[in-house]
Amino acid sequence: LLSHFSSIGFWGLVNNAGISTFGETGWLSMETYEKFADVNLLGSIRTTLAFLPLLRKYKGRIVFMSSIIAYFTLGNGIYSMTKAAIEKFCDALRLEMKKFGVQVCIIQPGNYARSTKIQPPVSADEIWSELSEEEKAVYNKEYVQERANFFNSILSEGSTNGNEVVDAMVDALTSPAPKARYMVAKLKEKVLVFVCASFPTFVMDSVLSYALSK
């Protein structure tokens, strides 16, 4: 791998791979958790480790695709979990790479579901059919339908201006002084992140519980 770039240099690496799904904690199988961790978290780590020697040699850039969902969750905790883990991996890597002149940047998009198609509309019937008997005994189909409708409404509000995220990625790769974090989101999304990051947990829980109840 390293020999292919030894004569032309290597400037930037963008870790963009990611998958998403919907479901409360007990609705998802252990295999699903393992798959998400493997793609969203370990996939980026594997790629980073493979290119790290070149990035150090050429004082390059590493860009990671995170999400504002790293700060809170509204029905897709499995996705939030992987993005929060990526954030911490990047925080450690950014500090460690300073001495080599390598800069690490995180892109934190808001809701761009309609741009990326990362998450198809949720089917309550499909979710219900895949639930274990234990989960079906706790939840009813009407609850699953309500949660699915809620999540689908969020997806339908997603921005179609995916170029905004691409512009942030380009700036992270080419700016003389790139930001450590690029939050590309609507004002109300930024406010929600601020509340979740700055206020006590009970405030965050109250806000999210209210949102989930609407």
What's this entry about, in short?
The protein is built from nine helices and four strands. It is α/β, with parallel strands linked by helices and 214 residues long.
How does this structure look, described?
Helix content is 56%, strand content 9%. The protein is an alpha/beta fold and 214 residues long. It has a single domain, classed as Rossmann fold (3-Layer(aba) Sandwich), CATH 3.40.50. Strands 1-2-3-4 form a 4-stranded parallel sheet, sandwiched between helices. Strand 2, helix 2 and strand 3 form a beta-alpha-beta unit. Helix 1 runs parallel beside helix 2 and helix 4 packs across helix 6. It starts with 11 loop residues before the first strand and ends with a helix. The model has no long low-confidence stretch (mean pLDDT 91).
